[in-house]
Design a protein that fits this description.
The protein is α+β, with helices and mostly antiparallel strands and about 90 residues long. It has one domain. It has 1 helix and 4 strands, in the order ββββα. Strands 1-2-4-3 form a 4-stranded antiparallel β-sheet, with no helix packed on it. Strand 3 and strand 4 form a beta hairpin.
């Protein structure tokens, strides 16, 4: 990545915790070392007056209500960032 730190956020879906969390958001300037966004992180949206880069990620096993939660969601997000920036 081109930066050493970033603000991150997650916005829960209305039916959470029954509904899945499949996206997380970072500062807009979180880019790969080559200056490009990571795969499925090309979109930027404005929320509460701030520009956020959207990382769209879907787990292969699907969302498991009663098992998956904010902790498992952020675990997936951290893994995603580690894999994007070897």
């Amino acid at each position: 990545m081109r930066t050493t730190s970033s603000t991150t956020s997650s916005f829960g879906n209305k039916p959470y915790p029954r509904g899945k969390m499949d996206m997380f958001w970072t500062d807009e300037d979180l880019l790969l070392a080559n200056g490009r966004p990571a795969k499925a992180a090309e979109h930027v949206r404005i929320y509460v007056g701030k520009r956020w880069r959207r990382f769209s990620r879907h787990t292969h096993r699907g969302w498991r209500p009663g098992i998956d939660n904010v902790r498992t969601h952020w675990s997936m997000a951290v893994q995603c960032l580690l894999e994007a920036a070897p």
